[in-house]
Specification:
Number of helices: 6
Structural class: mainly alpha
Radius of gyration: 20 Å
Distance between the termini: 18 Å
Shape: extended
Length: 196
Amino acid sequence: MSMSPLRRLVVAALVLAVGSPIVAFAQGPPPRANDSHGAPRRYDRQREQLEKQFEERIDAIVKQRLRLSDDQQVKLREVASRTEESRRVLRREEFVLRTSLREEMEAGDKADEAKVGELLEQIPRLERRKLELMESEQRDLAKFLSPTQRARYFGLQDELRRGMQELQRRRMGIDDSTVGPTDSRGFRRRGPPPPR
């Protein structure tokens, strides 16, 4: 299935912003032992430059798609930065939670029932926090964006997330067709997808 024009734009922006050197970043920092040529410092500077390019290109896409004034763009950047930091914390917590639950389930009959129950109770609480964050973000955005601009921003956020996920898969050499669907817990199903 072909990508939408916006999806292609997002992926193109990501590729142009980070370029091929990002492959090295994905593989981890360069060796620091016995390095007398300042490679770690060059690596850090290059990474900072690429991240800045990335942010500038994403800013340009957002401003164009939402038709923002300069003042709106500044305010949106502030809200987005604050909200993204909170989302990052929630993503880390969700990763730890789902990893712990997966490990218990893979233990089969040896799974700790009490721990599984505790982990399951945390899932709806985490989902409520994610919803509360989205509601808080919408209240902040409503102070300076029109409903139409907020709707476009909401859609663009989804496109950006999908574009970044697609770029990550391409960097890792993973074909979308080989990635199976997820179950109700968000885990990847094993084996071929069920027939329709």
